[in-house]
Write a structure and sequence with these properties.
- The chain is mainly alpha-helical.
- The protein folds into two domains: 87 residues, Arc Repressor Mutant, subunit A (Orthogonal Bundle), CATH 1.10.10.10; 73 residues.
- The chain has eight helices and three strands, in the order αβαααββαααα.
- Strand 2 and strand 3 form a beta hairpin.
- Helix 5 crosses helix 6 and helix 7 runs antiparallel to helix 8.
- This is PadR family transcriptional regulator.
- It holds the Pfam family PadR.
């Protein structure tokens, strides 16, 4: 799954109409290159591909400051459905933290019920992963080096931390935190 695609569609959706440089500037201001591995060139590629795929429409051009015209984009209904599907899938996938970071940034694209449901699925998946790690640590393979068992300790702590975060976010959403897609004006 592409974190870049999710973030680009989300910025276009939030902005209404926007050109690639504005999308790039917005994502760089979020430091998305650090937590979602978004590269500036991939932003323009994602916009062009989204236009080819009917996820965004080109709505005109404006003169560039010192270069070519800047194409303006607007999200389509297909694009809205796509971002919802991407965010929901990323929230449910307890194995991919890069797209999770993008999904958190795009969380308001979901309805409150969708976000609550998807976080609940993630929590169940994390609980299963934690149990699997505990079982593995309790019954290590014959000859498994101690330093490899140390990794399992690290992973167990990471899953515990993520579970704590997910449960707290779920509680905040249940309490009405954040303005979600079904709550906009």
């Amino acid at each position: 799954m592409s974190a870049t695609k999710m973030l680009v569609l989300g910025v276009v959706q939030a902005a209404g109409e926007v050109h690639g440089y504005q999308v790039r500037r917005e994502l760089l201001s979020w430091h998305a290159e650090n937590w979602a591995n978004v590269k500036p060139g991939s932003i323009y590629h994602a916009l062009k591909k989204a236009a080819r795929d009917g996820l965004v429409d080109e709505v005109g051009a404006q003169p560039g400051d010192s270069g070519p015209d800047r194409i303006r984009y607007r999200i389509t209904e297909s694009g809205v459905r796509e971002i919802v599907a991407l965010v929901r899938a990323a929230l449910r996938d307890a194995t991919d933290n890069v797209t999770l970071n993008a999904a958190i940034a795009m969380l308001p694209a979901l309805t409150r019920a969708e976000a609550i449901d998807d976080l609940g699925v993630r929590i169940v998946e994390l609980e299963k992963a934690l149990q699997g790690l505990r079982d593995w640590m309790a019954n290590p393979q014959e000859g498994l080096p101690e330093h490899v068992r140390e990794q399992a300790g690290l992973w167990t702590n990471q899953v515990n931390a993520e579970l704590d975060w997910a449960r707290k976010l779920l509680a905040r959403l249940n309490a009405g935190a954040y303005t979600m897609a079904d709550e906009h004006g």
